Amino acid sequence: MNADAPLFFATAARTGKKWLERDRSMVFAAILLAVIAIPCFLAPITAPYDPYELHNMVLLSDAPPSLLYPLGTDHYSRDVLSRLLYGGRLSLSIAVFATLVSVTVGTAYGAITGYAGGIVSAILERILDTLLAIPRLLLLIAIFAAWRELPIKAFVVILGLTGWYGLARLVRGQVLALKAQDFVASASALGATRTRILIRHILPNVVTPVVVAATLGVGHVILLEAGLSWLGVGIPVPEPSWGNMIQDGSQSPILSHWWIGFFPGLAIVLTVMAFNVLGDGLLRALSPRQSNK
Amino acid sequence: MTQPLLSVENLRTYFHDETAVARSVDGVSFVVNAGETLGIVGESGCGKSVTALSILRLVQAPGRIEAGSRILFEGKDLVTLDDAGMRAIRGNRISMIFQEPMSALNPVFSVGDQVAEVARVHGTGSRKDAWNRAVEMLTLTGIPSPAERAKQYPHQLSGGMRQRVLIAMALIMNPALVIADEPTTALDVTIQAQILELLVDLRNRFGTSILMITHDLGVIAETATRVLVMYGGEIVEEAPVETLFESAHHPYTEGLMNAMPQITESRERLNVIPGTVPPPTAWPSGCRFRDRCPYSWEKCADEHPPLYQIAEGHTSRCHLAVEPERRAHPHLPLVEQIGATL
Q1: β-pairing verdict for B94-97 and B70-73
Q2: How do residues A209-244 score in pLDDT, each as one tens digit?
Q3: Mean pLDDT in chain A?
Q4: Is B206 within 8 Å of B170 (Cβ atoms)?
Q5: Per-residue b or e along B294-331, where b marks 16 or more CB atoms closer than 10 Å to that residue's CB
Q6: How confident is the model at residue A12 (pLDDT cuts 50, 70, 90)?
């Protein structure tokens, strides 16, 4: 916050290096994630083919992995590797942006609920309790089944807007605990307004649990998107996503044409696992008692 | 005499719940003059901290300052001042030093930022100016290599250093009055002495008045010019510091003095005042100290003692002022007698 930015970055780099030395599982997760995510986000460069191109409906339908098509082709003779890369780009983007929506709404809602007190908090808490009682998956199936031709932006926003309740609760609890701390009393004794106390003094202390929850949240949304797409209410075909690629795979006999569903499934499992390990690692690394030692 | 800096008149701060009213501060009046250190001393639960919080209007619900209380400061009544006006006073004209130097600092910001934050809240100059002033304040509070220390976080500093940071935060706006609520309680004795010395030094340098709240008569002796002794939400004795130590009048003050260990005498046990402070929801009628007092008689149960004038600047809320001969015949305090019959 002060003028000493280079020092800040140097310190951050040093502590970052220390985490990595201390936490090998996190290094592993970070590398795994980079190996999966970077080629996906560079899909237009890394993909060998156009993901929509039907190579040869007759000769190349359900072709097994080969030199020309490293992960095989699907029922419509499209290249599985290219679809996997483009699908990964979409699935990861959806997960990241939906989580951003969740984190923003959840943090704001939780902070206000925890900080306001009185009737405002009581009402916001009851609303939150009600929202938590709605089964998310069923609600999403209902929305997406009813709303055909859903633009992807709307899909992301709806995923995000149904995923912030747990985070709001987490933030609310943290804010309640922080509100009772002496430094908050001290800030108000030194003349800060309530809004300033919330934004400048309380929220920076909530960053750690929010970052951790967000990391775990990305993995969760990837699974959710896959589930919805597999059920046929997610990303509409022919747009590739990891979820609807598995759906494609289940249209052909699975055991004899395993490559169509297996590779997107593997990508989902590895990515979600990486996010989970990363979240746990961040939690350990960002705990104030452990850093800077 | 000139206009006092702060004048508290009949301050009553009560905590209300469904079943009871806790009268934590119950009709307290005093003044703080410019440049002086006024000590408020008393046991836990006597109302001294609530008095301090009331002055800054930081008493949390369900507590509230009752109608009829007045806190006059620089021509304004702080009891009726609007929130914006109150914020302009907090940290700027009146500031507060808290007891726990660890928890009173925000763990995620550097200490320099936290000192500068006070200057920024009160809107003077740029971010850079605020930072420079913060470093200057840290220098004044005797922190070695302040420019580097300012970039460190609270957990990287020792308890004494952190208390110096809090003092820098309290003094950066050069307030007229600093309220120090047990500023040295959490520190070990050698650091305590340094911090008290620093406070006295800064007071002399800037002409700041200090309201020193403590349970430790040693702290009072080292810093205060005048002392208020509080008991049961009231002031029971007020005197210049020398007078208080030489000729305390109120039996409670006497008890506090006797409870101080003396280095010259060898005792097997420390003297204590028997019993505890009664709950603020049920102050006894008459004198609130009478159950613990070795001199109490019928009058103490019947009549709530007023503040009697003992000498110039010395008052005491004890009927002994009109019947001084009773001091020669102490008896076992009532709480002890009950204990003996059980």
Answers
A1: unpaired
A2: 899 999 999 999 999 999 998 888 888 878 889 988
A3: 86
A4: no
A5: bbbeeebeeeebebbebeeebbbbbbbbeeeeeeeeee
A6: low
Query: In the prediction, which pLDDT does B339 show?
Result: 60
Q: According to the 3-state scheme, what is the secondary structure of chain A?
A: CCCCHHHHHHHHHHHHHHHHHHCHHHHHHHHHHHHHHHHHHCHHHHCCCCCCCCCCCCCCCCCCCCCCCCCCECCCCCEHHHHHHHHHHHHHHHHHHHHHHHHHHHHHHHHHHHHHCHHHHHHHHHHHHHHHCCCHHHHHHHHHHHCCCCCHHHHHHHHHHCCCHHHHHHHHHHHHHHHCCHHHHHHHHCCCCHHHHHHHHHHHHHHHHHHHHHHHHHHHHHHHHHHHHHCCCCCCCCCCCHHHHHHHHCCCCCCCCHHHHHHHHHHHHHHHHHHHHHHHHHHHHHCCCCCCC
Question: How confident is the model at residue A4, as a pLDDT?
Answer: 53
Q: What pLDDT shows up at residue A5?
A: 56
Residue B228 in contact with residue B252, Cβ under 8 Å? no
Name the one residue in this structure whose structure tokens are 């609310």: A172
ipTM of this predicted complex? 0.78
For residue A8, the chain B residue with the least C-alpha distance is B151
So where are chain A's domains?
26-58+68-291
Residue B15's beta-bridge partner residues? B22, B63
Distance in Å, alpha carbon of A6 to nearest chain B alpha carbon: 13
pLDDT of A168 over the 90 cut = yes
DSSP states of B277-340: PPPTTSPPSS-TTGGG-TT--HHHHHS----EEEETTEEE--GGGT-GGGGGS----HHHHHHH
pLDDT confidence of residue A52:
85
A77 within 8 A of A60, measured Cβ to Cβ: yes
A interface toward B at CB cutoff 8 Å?
1-4, 7, 181-183, 185-193, 196, 200-201, 204-205, 207, 288, 292
Q: What is the DSSP track for B219-233?
A: HHHHH-SEEEEEETT
- pTM for the whole structure: 0.78
Q: How confident is the model at residue A172 (pLDDT cuts 50, 70, 90)?
A: very high
Residue numbers in chain B where pLDDT is lower than 70: 1-2, 124, 265-268, 338-342
Does A183 sit within 8 Å of B122, measured CB to CB? no
> How many other CB atoms are there within 10 angstroms of residue B266's CB atom?
6
Interface contact B121-A196, CB threshold 8 A: yes
Kindly state the percentage of chain A with pLDDT values over 90.
Answer: 44
A2 vs B contacts (CB less than 8 Å) = 110, 112-113, 116, 127, 131, 151
Q: Under the phi-then-psi rule, with left for phi > 0, alpha for psi from -120 to 50, and beta for the rest, what region is B246?
A: alpha
Q: Which of these CATH numbers, 1.10.3720.10, 1.10.10.10, 3.40.50.300, 3.40.190.10, describes A26-58+68-291? A: 1.10.3720.10
The closest of A99, A42, A88, A97 to A269, measured between CA atoms, is A88
Contact B116/A2, CB-based, under 8 Å? Answer: yes
DSSP sequence for B179-193: EEESTTTTS-HHHHH
CA A244/CA B199 separation, integer angstroms? 70
Q: How confident is the model at residue A3 (pLDDT cuts 50, 70, 90)?
A: very low
